[in-house]
Amino acid sequence: xxxxxxxLNELLYSHIPFVMVTLVDVVGxxxxxxxxxxxxxxxxxxxxxxxxGKVEFKAINEAKALLENKLLKNSFVAWNLKNxxxxxxxxxxxxxxxxxxxKTWKIxxxxxxxxxxxxxxLLLKLECxxxxxxxxxxWLDKLPKSSKLSLTHTNDMASEVKQLDHDTFVLLMTMGHxxxxxxxxxxxxxxxxxxxxxxxxxxxxxxxxxxxxEANLPSSCKDAFYCPIxxxxxxxxxxxxxxxxxxxxxxxRDQLQNVIPNNEx
Length: 265
Known about the structure:
Radius of gyration: 24 Å
Number of strands: 10
Structural class: alpha/beta
Distance between the termini: 40 Å
Number of helices: 7
């Protein structure tokens, strides 16, 4: 039988959402020692124990509720065994819940050129899964190796759009307008993503909007993407563009999650 730590590593490697539940403190009697842990997935108890009985049953339900909450990553509870758990004995248990892989931030980057090669290493430092696609294997090969990065070499990038999940952040930064446009039109016709950005200038954005009209797409499509991409900071060096784009992706992600960052130590 695998140890609790081996099971934890398997869940981490498999990117299965789970909560690690730790018995932090006990006042009164307890069937398990302080520091005992269990792992809970959406299916229920995966491994370990904090003592069984009503406390464990309540903790499993608390963990599953945390998995459903897309904003919270952890919580701490102090339960009175009589009032909160419904046990006849008195005492208090304090339990820490820590969620993993509750919602994977997915990012798709079409194009593996200079800016993508500057941006992707930055994004890999964050909690996200990245999919990069390009027609040029030599540029894909320049990207760092990571379990958080998948690569696709294809001569028809537009056909890959249908494979993307609806909650993916999408960036188009291929070799130029002629290769970005077919992907963009495919997305505007058939998909809707929380973030869609096309690298380029304001002049390129104006050209794209004319192309959208010529493609007989709804006028609303002209406002369905960011171009230029990134925050209005820095210069045109690929590294500074990458920083501005990463900042914008984080900004949009947090706006969608309605998260207010706490930068205090």
